[in-house]
Amino acid sequence: MKRTKGTKRMKRMKRRKKRKRVQKIKEKKGKGKRVNKGKKEEKEKKEKKEEKEESETGDAKKTQKVVKIYSQDGNLLSDDCPFIQAAITHQLKAPKMDDIRASGELGMDLFGDTYSLSYTFQEEETKVESPVVLCLPWRKQEGHKLDSQLDMINHLSQGNTLVPSLLLLWTLNVINENIQCFGSHIALPSSVFQHSKASGSMAKQVSDLIVLCSGGRAVPDWCQFLSSHCPFLFPLQLRKSFFRIKSVPMTRILSQHQQTPERQTAVTKYRIDRDQILASAHKIFEMDLNGSLHIEFKDEPGIGSGPTREFFTLFSEEIQVASLDLWLASESKPTVKVGEKEFVFHEEGLFPKPVATWSADYKRINQICSHFRLLGKFIAKALIDDQLANISLSLPFIKILLGNTLDMRDLCKLRPCTGAIILELASTWREHVANNADPQKFLFRGASVENMELTFCTSDGSLKEGGEEIDLTVNNLEDYLDATLEFFFGAGIEKQVAAFKEGFEAFLPLERLTLFSPEELTQVICGEDEKPWNKEDLKSNFALEHPVPSARIIDFLFSVLEELSSDQQKLFLRFLTSCSKLPIGGFASMHPRCTVSAKHSALPDLECPIANTCFYKLYLPEYSSKEKLKEKLMEAMNGTDFKFDRS
């Protein structure tokens, strides 16, 4: 019996062990199946998400959802109107604001009331804007920039009692800027439209330390709004300071505000060859230039800001070489020879030369675009580093960068002969069409269009593919007018403009340039316009440093400078500062201040003056006469072998 019981127990133990083994095996198989199921479910979820995202992005490429916000009165607010502005608008419309305005105290309780927000979604198609906006005088224009700005100001004027007056000032300023369109009238000076109180308030904001530390983000909304949409209210120098706060790195702004030297970690130094400026510039601007740029020349021990300004001046000259074939030359005097090089010349400034993309070599087009991309980086870096680009850009080119419209007046500036004929032809054709006359009986200067013997080709290139073989007739007259503007301001320069904007936006957004008008932006980039120098102004803007020259030599110097011509003034500025242009404000705005010191010499009449370009210092020997001073100064100014020394 004992044996049978033992055997039964052993069998039971074996059965239990088998059951446990089977359960473990089943559990393992079940876990594996669950894991596989989980992975499959995750893959399916990912695939569904990717399909949804692709469908959403595909729809987003076609349409965009725009939020339309309505006020409590049911009025539609502007697209870019934030909710806080809607709340302020509601408070301004409240009856209690009449009492607040009467008492002169603004005590709106924005966060004490409850606001109801109503909104809708609206789908709008995305539109691709062309880089150049053309204004065709013989066709009806749609979407003009003036109309869009008026609509924008009307939207923002809801509930604001000040905006109607701003709208009136804005309209008057636009009329004043385009006064030539209304007849032979003289435009008012820009200072007439400036607001002294608003300028004083903005000057306080610009000099505030919190605003400087925030990189311009702590500027009140009214400063941003007025400077963007009504910049004429503020002086140019103030807007330039506001532009630098928004564009220049914070460390550099603080060092300039505290008048302390910039940290060495924020300075980028390069040593380049004076004879290979463009090649060196291509390599330099391919880098990420976060700090200020400092340049040194090979085989020259000079360091500091002087060689850096010399680099900006030399680059400005090299980009204007006629052999590069980048710019539209003048009809009467296409080039100017200086030394062994020929430079492009145009009375109105530089404008990109149109290129017929259908006939030009792609390698040449790519090379031209690379130069314009480099020029865009150069201009942006010059604005950040507060350097002047010694390059005269034309107003039509500046208008393109600012997004302004171009019309026949701009073509008349660049091509006076061609533009005058095209403008007269367009106006005559417009009058003929307005009178509902027979197009086949159209006459220009008493003759038919066919007798003019014109083709779709100009001295600057073909207006369209095969234009040399297309004769101008009444039937294709409008196509000829459109093709002319499209060639000079459209497809002919589209790639060059796009490359310039691409290079510029690598350092700065183009939107920040809207603080300036086209005429002002040329001064910000290229420096102040040429003006005759006054002896009294020179005395007030030049300082004397030890060892102080005699009063006789100082009087000789200012008398000689007052008599200099415009070309001689450029040579003197190049000799003293390494740049042939003055910044906005002239000598008074130069930092550091220009100084004059005496140079001791045993034979002063045999030595030339010496200039320290880093600190704008001029060292003068004790010359025997005014004529001798002028002779030696002109000899130093006309020297061709400029080298930088440490002295």
Strand order of the largest sheet: 11-12-14-13
- Largest sheet, described in full? 4 strands, mixed
Q: How large is the count of helical segments? A: 23
> In percent, how much strand structure appears in the residues?
5-15%
In percent, how helical is the residue content?
Answer: 40-55%
Give the class from helix and strand content and strand pairing.
alpha/beta
Question: Termini distance?
Answer: 122 Å
Overall radius of gyration: 35 Å
How does the overall form come out from the CA principal axes?
Answer: extended
Quantity of strands, as a count: 14
Unreliable segments of 5+ consecutive residues: 32-37, 56-67, 95-108, 124-148
What is the mean pLDDT? 77
Q: What does this entry look like structurally?
A:
It is a single chain. This protein is an alpha/beta fold and 647 residues long. Helix content is 48%, strand content 9%. It has helices spanning 2-62, 83-93, 96-103, 145-156, 163-177, 196-207, 209-213, 221-229, 236-247, 250-258, 277-285, 305-318, 362-384, 395-402, 408-414, 416-434, 477-489, 494-505, 518-526, 535-541, 551-562, 566-577, 626-637; strands at residues 63-70, 118-125, 133-134, 267-272, 292-297, 335-338, 341-344, 405-406, 457-458, 461-462, 542-544, 594-598, 610-612, 617-620. A hairpin with a 2-residue loop joins strand 6 (335-338) and strand 7. Helix 22 (566-577) packs across helix 23 (626-637). The longest helix is centred in the first third of the chain and has 61 residues, at 2-62. The radius of gyration is 35 Å and the shape is extended.
